[in-house]
């Protein structure tokens, strides 16, 4: 199609100039040129896949494609010239000076076709890259649609009782906004949300290691940091020897969510979230603290649904050996402390 398009263009030029038009010869010569580039296209696409025009090595990949195009275009042009010359001589029996009616001299012809070849090389790379970006965008939109559909199914009923529904819908809304502004950031947010949902749905044990719980909380915080950007600064003080202790599954996440909801979401000056763990009197002590506005003076601190669920699970698992405390800070912030019996993984 491309060859026929250029042949039609050449024929129109010859018509306007009043020259004699040779439809078959012009079409055949153009098809020779473009079939050679059709043969080169798989190699160009392979290089575009291997060295994409994106990522941290963009400058290096541009330099490599520039070098390859400067090498490939003259080689293809030489092949085009001699194949066209052979076609004129052996297929159309055109020899001597009559050849120059259809072909320029070797130097001029190769130079002109090399310039066209370089443009063709970059056109193929650009078209492949555009198609790749479009495919990735469509895949991300499909993932977003699948996640949104999953929210309405019964398989998430258990998760909805543990993760605040507003967090999930806010995350999906943030993804839809980012898809118009920063596709890469939206992709990272989709991956984090997908990992979070998968981890929550796959959990069947009542107790997991503190390290696994912190990994889950980390995914949750990655999503929340997209909302608050640089304002949400997380500080963790977790001794390495406590990473293997057992804690209730989904115990820390409601505490972190509570701190963000009542601290960061209501006070634009709040910026610090602390997560700490230590051994205290032979028991495990977990603390989540924020520097938000904190409770009003003389107000009664009450547990919401999330903290009440955590307290109920603690009592079922450990009885009187565990506790959950919610206290105000020194003028600002709140902290929530979980105390558990020490149990280590083997």
Would you summarize the structure shown here?
The protein has 346 residues and is α+β, with helices and mostly antiparallel strands.
Note down, in words, how this protein is organized.
This protein has about 350 residues and is of the alpha+beta class. About 60% of the residues lie in helices and about 10% in strands. It contains ten helices and seven strands. It has helices at about 1-15, 25-50, 60-90, 105-150, 155-160, 165-180, 185-200, 210-230, 250-265, 305-320; strands at about 205-210, 235, 245-250, 270-280, 285-290, 325-330, 335-340. Strands 2-4-5-7-6 form a five-stranded mixed sheet. A two-stranded antiparallel ribbon has the order 1-3. A hairpin with a 5-residue loop joins β6 (about 325-330) and β7. α2 (about 25-50) packs across α4 (about 105-150) and α8 runs parallel beside α9. The protein is rod-shaped, with a radius of gyration of 33 Å. Mean pLDDT is about 80; it is low at about 150-160.
